[in-house]
Design a protein that fits this description.
508 residues; Nucleotidyltransferase, domain 5; Hypothetical protein af1432; five-stranded mixed sheet; 17% strand
Length: 508
């Protein structure tokens, strides 16, 4: 139990040599856990890294560890084979050096050091065995990668250990670890003894933290599987695990749902592997007690964890301070749009319509403007659907599910005047009627702006909106007058109708 100020460097060289850099060369990370061994290769926008390659092998290194004190022999062989293969795959991707970390199973097993030595001899891969507190910090940094302003408690559940870390103001506070996980609990046959063990471990951890009724962020495969089941239970319309929210009361409902439907049926319904589904009863026992002891206000699922935290460790502060959503959208625009840079001009164009918006809404408007043209290669008849689909399922951090749908709907309106007769209508129940109207206005404003400058980000065209007077003004320069054709006027009128405003066109 300690407050960690520094985690030993995990990379031989700084990943980001220039603090102003947005591009990230490929970086490979091997995460050796109690249940699986995973290779992730990151590529793309530095603040919001993309997954160039992501593969895990279920090895079960920690199976039987609590009984025998040693790594599972079969799991050990599978892990070494996986690491050897990952090394070869990395070379084919132009990555000469991988960073490998091992967590609870390797650090607690009596033959953990021998395993690391064998891996080095057979594959040439060095393994950094990190402490529980270091693991907690890296997991928390992974959450901060996706949620820069996140606050609350991060809980990373592995096979045989559970890590907790406080986060607030972009910093990681107290970190702690406990010998608690599904593989550990499987070795305790009697339910009463198992629940007593869970309670004692969590109660001991709680002494290091002050319960604040904050959000609980869940990291780890077992938590993600639980979230997938809960989505099925409540028929959640957007099946994106990252940022999925649960209420404390839904834990009990989820427990009954699992009991009523049976693990085998649930595994089929939710596409959960046999190796993972057997952990579910133990995971929900932990979650129920965890939320009770730490008085969780609500629960959020994070797909970002230790691997993303390793990258965050090496980011300069000015990069950490950037919004991962905006950075990812900028990167997408630079890579895929017809006119890179037009997104900024478009944002300035539409801003007067949302002058009273909160910061949380303004960043969504900015993101939409950067993304307004990235799906232009899609068939024109389906471009609106491609845009909606792209944003609602994209690998983006810092987005609630409702915000994903808002962005998707705004981009749909960028190419189509109505959302009727689309396959996405069920998702709109995540938005209020006002948010749907705001998305329509934003989309139509982007639709107009994009028509005024096709090949250049430079334009003398400005919107002015007087809400009380119900007047929408378009101010344009001489060149824009020549571009202002029939289609532009139709789009302007459509935007004005959505605002219930009169139109005025004047010279700058």
């Amino acid at each position: 139990m300690q407050d960690l100020a520094v985690t030993p460097p995990l990379f031989k060289e700084t990943v980001f040599d220039d603090p102003s850099v947005r591009d990230l060369s490929r970086v490979g990370v091997i995460d050796i856990g109690s249940n699986s061994v995973r290779l992730v290769v990151f590529d793309g926008a530095a603040r919001s890294p993309a997954y160039f390659f992501n593969e895990k092998i279920m090895c079960g290194l920690g199976v039987g560890l609590s009984l025998h004190g040693r790594l599972n022999p079969e799991g050990r062989n599978r892990a070494i084979s996986a690491i050897a293969r990952f090394k070869q795959l990395a070379k084919s991707m132009g990555i000469d050096e991988l960073t490998a970390v091992a967590t609870a199973a390797v650090r607690t097993a009596s033959d953990g050091r021998d395993f690391c030595q064998e891996v080095m001899e057979k594959t040439g891969q060095f393994i950094a065995v990190i402490s529980g507190e270091e693991e907690a910090k890296l997991s928390a940094q992974g959450v901060l990668t996706g949620w820069p302003g996140a606050y609350g408690l991060v809980c990373d559940l592995g096979g045989i250990s559970l890590e907790l870390a406080e986060i607030s103001n972009g910093k990681v506070g107290t970190c702690a670890s406990a010998d608690l996980g599904p593989l550990k609990l499987m070795d305790i046959d009697k339910k009463k003894e198992r629940l007593e063990y869970i309670s004692s471990q969590l109660s001991h951890l709680a002494k290091s933290f002050v319960p604040k009724n904050n959000r609980l962020f869940l990291v780890g495969g077992s938590w993600r599987a639980l979230a997938r089941i809960d989505m099925e239970r409540c028929d959640h319309p957007l099946r994106v695990l990252h940022e999925y929210r649960m209420e404390k009361k839904s834990i009990k409902e989820l427990k009954y749902f699992i009991k009523d439907h049976g693990l085998e049926n649930i595994a089929k319904q939710c596409s959960i592997s046999a190796n993972r589904i057997m952990f579910i009863p133990y995971a929900i026992e932990i979650l129920e007690k965890l939320s009770s002891i730490f008085k969780s206000k609500d629960i959020a699922i994070s797909s970002y964890g230790i691997r993303e935290g390793m990258l965050y460790e090496k980011m300069p502060q000015m990069l950490k301070d950037r919004d991962p959503l905006i950075e990812a959208c900028r990167f997408a625009e630079a890579k895929d749009s017809r006119v890179p840079g037009a997104g900024k001009a478009l944002f300035n164009f539409v801003k007067p319509l949302f002058s009273n918006s909160k910061e949380s809404q303004t960043r969504l408007i900015q993101a939409a403007c950067y993304l307004h043209d990235v799906s232009w290669r899609a068939h024109p008849d389906y471009r609106h659907e491609a845009c909606f689909d792209y944003i609602t399922r994209a690998n983006l951090g810092g987005l609630k599910h409702s915000e994903r749908v808002f962005l998707g709907l705004a981009l749909l309106f960028r190419y189509k005047n109505s959302h009727s007769r689309t396959s996405f209508d069920p998702l709109l129940r995540l938005l209020s009627s006002q948010k749907i109207k705001d998305a329509e206005i934003l989309g139509k404003a982007m639709r107009l702006g994009a028509n005024l400058w096709v090949t250049s980000a430079d334009s003398e065209a400005y919107l002015k909106y007087a809400k009380k007077k119900s007047k929408l003004s378009l101010k344009i320069g001489e060149l824009e007058k020549k571009r202002l054709g029939e289609v532009s006027l139709i789009r302007l009128k459509s935007l004005a109708n959505s605002l219930k405003a009169e139109v005025e066109i004047s010279d700058i």
